[in-house]
Amino acid sequence: MFVLNKAEKVDIFGSDDIIRYGQKVKIEMSPYMYRKKLYLGSTTQSSQCYSPESRKQEASAHSIDHYNCTWVLETLDPNFRFEMQGEPVKANEPVLMRHAQTGHYLASDSKRHGNEFGGEWEVMCHSFSTQNKTQNLQLEKTGHSTSDIPARFQHE
């Protein structure tokens, strides 16, 4: 249903058609869904624009191709995000999609809401993170992490 397109071709990512970590991409919906091209995008959360169920930053389809529709691909493990920059994304490997403009990740929660197609999960942009303290200093001491790599694992 979706087509992944490179948003920009930069020298560190090469000029080939391989999608790499850290690269800016745009997600285009299938042209059979609507008579115009639609892109997955998000806008900054405000009192006028938010997701209907969770009240987080809205993610939706946009008919205009602009920077709000740009995403950055990142690896799940925050300890390897810096090392994986520029490496090819393997097929069927889970990735994080970070909104390029706001820095929040594409997310969904387990709350179902009904519509004319049945029950669906809401898709939004939100960076879920745990509130407990992580062992960043211990990882740095043992050499498993450095201060420039975030050590919080984004999950709930």
How are the strands of the biggest sheet laid out side by side?
Answer: 1-2-5-6
Q: Please identify the structural class as seen in this structure.
A: mainly beta
The CATH topology label is Trefoil (Acidic Fibroblast Growth Factor, subunit A)
Unreliable sequence segments: none
> What is the overall shape?
globular
Determine Rg (CA atoms, Å): 17 Å
The whole-number mean of residue pLDDT values reads 76
SSE order, one letter for each helix or strand = EEEEEEEEH
**Major beta sheet summary:** 4 strands, antiparallel
Q: Report the helical percentage.
A: under 10%
Span between termini: 27 Å
Number of strands: 8
The number of distinct structural domains comes to 1
Beta strand %: 25-35%
What does this structure look like?
There is one protein chain. A hairpin with a 2-residue loop joins strand 7 (106-115) and strand 8 (118-125). The model has no long low-confidence stretch (mean pLDDT 76). The chain has one helix spanning 136-142; strands at residues 2-6, 24-29, 39-42, 57-62, 71-74, 96-99, 106-115, 118-125. It has a single domain (2-142), classed as Trefoil (Acidic Fibroblast Growth Factor, subunit A), CATH 2.80.10. The two termini are 27 Å apart. 4% of the residues lie in helices and 30% in strands. With 156 residues, the chain is mainly β. The longest helix has 7 residues, at 136-142.
